[in-house]
Design brief:
660 residues; 11-stranded mixed beta sheet; 24 helices; 42% helix; globular
Length: 660
């Protein structure tokens, strides 16, 4: 498969656009190293992998001519009058990735010459809105040039949205905005959100007893300058009244003389326009601020600050695209809202009173969870794999890629389950959401379970079989499966249970809509012979630590939970209620579990199964509380609550038994 990446700028730019091109380039290199028969061609201002053809060469006259011809990038001149189109035609790539929506004029031209080429457009901004940010303080251009730029950008961006086969977006907001502007219909087949993804900074910040607020960003970019001036005019003096020792560093390239004159009026403020490395401007006591009030795209500097282990006070605008970090309990001591004076005062009050080493650790952990380059590599590889299938004549192209394309790893321990195993696996294979893998752990079965697993494995590469040498037990087997899992999400399914066809899809939609990291569902309880089914209703919809102590309301097979959470809390104590212990440990750390009030999980009750044996349940519940070092009296009280809840539940189940 041949992939061509076309970018109008330099590949190694240090701006936000450069960081985005680095994300694409890293992902392509990763894809090249992990797949066979892949060829990558990069064409930009500073690189051309196609011999005999010219580079994309930016000149001022090309910018002027392209606008005169009603297009928004100088590359139109190279396409229309140069050899760019001939270069693409010579390579005849299977996939072309365009580095920016301003290159939308290329989509139709390439498709006419290379009819089998699929085109992916990378939106590093909604470019139409970026024009407003760029011209924010250029009043002298607020006439013909401004409106011409708006017109030509809209024209090219509309082509990118309307004709491209697939779109890579930075944020969910971009999808909404593009839909509003161009009437685009986004669905599982034509877009994915791939957030900012950076390489982790190896910088060791120097120690300092002095506290600094630090802003970094290009100071030729008007939205950044206006944000800094707004902060100085509206926030800084009030902060100095409360914290007179604080200093403020403004760091960025090419500040104007007007900007420097405006900044120099303020006390304890310094501008660093020519810094070469982060250790020149940041120290371990620095607090990153981002007071951006408006501006297109995602603020990449927030992710950079997290990678350095810095706490952040930022406006709502700056935090667009960082919803996962904001929803994570780790973010409570790391990221603070900063839209008003009071926001900054409260944020600083908290940060100046807590252990900054702990804050730094949490910041880096958040970065590693959500914004590393590996995440971009995995997401883009999953998208390109779909096109690899399309180009394989023996395969049918399947473009079922949902937003951000999360992989769900299904952990399935298997022990002597030949009677029900096929049904369990088929209930995953028939899911309406298709980006899953099954990690099946054969735990020393003596029946035909391993033969069945290997049969499915041969037919589907997404089914991974791990064969334990001995019978390790269900708890250790699940932990082994989690270690092998590659997914963003972990789901549990025992080898005799089943899922409704839309279980994963509904859970992912719910999780995305509600910023949830731990989701479960109502269940049906199946009898051994399928003669009856019992509906177990969900109560309540949101469960915190205090609620879970009163009884286990979460069925393991119904759970979908973020991998980084469950990896932090491996399962323990098979002799107790291992899933209940896990839920209590997770919720005790500040996470909440959210339930979908629909029976999407079918749990089979067998006479000799662990889940059907209620004789020791009360004793196990008490021992589970004590294992978590809960006091004896509290453990007794919670055991009573747990028992009463179980009696109420099973009375309800008996009364609501029905034939199927």
């Amino acid at each position: 498969m041949k992939i061509m990446y076309i970018k109008a700028g330099n590949i190694d730019e240090k701006s936000g656009g450069g960081l985005e091109s680095a994300k694409i380039l890293h992902s392509l290199k990763h894809y090249l190293n992990t797949r066979k028969d892949i060829h990558i061609y990069v064409v930009s201002r500073d690189r051309n992998d196609v011999k005999g053809y010219s580079f994309l060469n930016k000149k001022k006259w090309k910018d002027i001519l392209s606008r005169a011809l009603f297009h928004s990038s100088y590359a139109f001149v190279d396409l229309r009058f140069g050899d760019l189109l001939a270069m693409v035609q010579k390579v005849d790539p299977d996939i072309v990735i365009l580095g920016n929506s301003r290159l939308g004029f290329m989509v139709n031209a390439i498709k006419k010459k290379c009819s089998n080429t699929r085109i992916i457009v990378h939106f590093d901004n909604v470019e139409y809105d970026y024009v407003d940010a760029y011209f924010a303080n250029k009043k002298e251009f607020k006439h013909f040039i401004y409106w011409l730029e708006k017109f030509v950008v809209r024209r090219d961006e509309k082509s990118a949205v309307g004709i491209a086969d697939f779109m890579l977006l930075l944020t969910k907001r971009d999808r909404i905005r593009l839909s509003e502007m161009y009437g685009a219909e986004f669905n599982a087949n034509n877009f994915a959100v791939v957030p900012i993804c950076l390489e982790e900074k190896a910088t060791a910040l120097k120690s300092s007893h002095k506290e600094y607020l630090v802003f970094t960003g290009s100071l030729w970019y008007e939205a950044n300058c206006l944000a800094v001036l707004w902060f100085l005019e509206n926030i800084w003096d009030e902060i100095k009244k409360h914290y007179p020792e604080l200093a403020f560093k403004i760091c960025g390239s090419n500040p104007s003389k007007v900007f420097l004159e405006a900044v120099c009026k303020y006390d304890s403020v310094a501008v660093y326009p020519n810094y070469k490395s982060y250790d020149e401007i940041f120290c371990d006591s620095s607090i990153f601020i981002s007071p951006i009030q408006e501006g297109a795209g995602m603020k990449v500097k927030v992710a950079e600050a997290l990678s350095l282990g810095l706490p952040i006070i930022a406006s709502r605008e700056s935090l667009i695209g960082y919803e996962e970090a904001l929803a994570d309990p780790l973010g409570k001591d790391v990221i603070f809202k900063g839209d008003t004076v009071q926001d900054y005062i409260e944020g600083l009050k908290t940060l100046l009173s807590i252990d900054r080493k702990d804050v730094s650790k949490k910041a880096k952990e958040i970065f590693r969870k959500y914004y590393t380059i590996k995440r971009g590599e995995d997401l883009i590889a999953a998208i390109l794999d779909k096109y690899a299938k399309y180009n394989d004549e023996s395969s049918v192209f399947d473009s079922n890629i949902i937003e951000s394309k999360p992989l769900v790893s299904v952990i399935m321990p298997v022990y002597n389950s030949q009677e029900y195993l096929r049904e369990a696996i088929d209930s995953v294979r028939e899911q309406t959401y298709e980006n899953w893998e099954i990690i099946a752990i054969n735990d020393g079965s003596s029946d035909k379970s391993i033969e069945i697993l290997n049969e499915y494995k041969e037919a589907n590469l997404r089914i991974i079989v791990i064969d334990n040498n001995n019978n390790f037990g269900v708890v250790k087997s699940r932990n082994i499966g989690i270690q092998y899992a590659k997914g963003d999400w972990i789901a549990f399914l025992d080898s005799d249970d089943l899922w409704a066809k839309d279980k994963l899809e509904k859970q992912l939609i719910y999780a995305d809509k509600n910023n949830s990291l731990f989701v479960f569902t109502d269940i049906y309880m199946l009898s051994h012979s399928y003669s009856s089914v019992k509906y177990c209703s969900l109560e309540p919809k949101e469960i915190d630590y205090k609620t879970i102590l009163k009884g286990n309301m979460i069925a393991l097979a119904s759970v979908m939970i973020k991998k980084e959470i469950v990896s932090t809390f491996p399962m323990e104590r098979e002799d107790l209620h291992e899933d209940y212990i896990l839920w209590m440990k997770v919720l005790r750390k500040g996470y909440n579990a959210y339930g979908i009030n629909q029976p999407l999980t079918f749990i089979r009750i067998r006479e000799n199964s662990r889940s059907s044996n209620k004789i020791n349940s009360v004793a196990k519940a008490f021992k589970s509380y004590r294992y978590l070092q809960i006091g004896i009296l509290e453990s007794l009280a919670y055991t009573v609550m747990n028992t009463l809840r179980s009696i109420k539940k099973y009375t309800y189940l008996i009364l609501n038994r029905r034939k199927i």
